[in-house]
């Protein structure tokens, strides 16, 4: 289970880095192309979040939250996944939206994903890298929402830098999960 999650995090990380590099290298790209790239990225991230939200969780109820263990994080991932899909589809279907509208969509998406990642970092594995990804997403999202008229160049760079950093951190989280998974296998084999 952890290996599959690590694999999905790794793919999300690679896609984020590729998207970020493209946004930084070609910041003068038209709003339509940026909307399409962002839409595809948001859809892939939304699907990844929904996959984690619908997988079954076993275990007793958590006495603090009242949820079955893992239900709270599943709800957070489900919400983040649905928001990612909706925003991604909107960006792909209506790529001709203005830069300000696109900026607001990107900002809202980043804040929701950031909140979800922070929630997951405190409730599950992923540790500091997931918490840092979440905090970075919230900061980038708020910056974009506060200054949506900053222009396509600033938005492209902000999105690009965020995507590169979060992509690298996602790959670190995938690496940590892979080693956590292999460490459990070794401990089980020793017993």
TrEMBL record:
Pfam family, one: DUF308
GO CC term (a single one): plasma membrane
Highest taxon listed in the record's lineage: Bacteria
This protein's record includes keyword Protein transport: no
Keywords annotated in UniProt: Membrane, Transmembrane, Transmembrane helix
The keyword Transmembrane appears for this protein: yes
Chain segments annotated as transmembrane: 7-26, 32-54, 75-94, 100-120, 127-146, 152-177
Cross-referenced PANTHER family: PROTEIN HDED
The protein's name: Membrane protein
Organism of origin: Dactylosporangium matsuzakiense
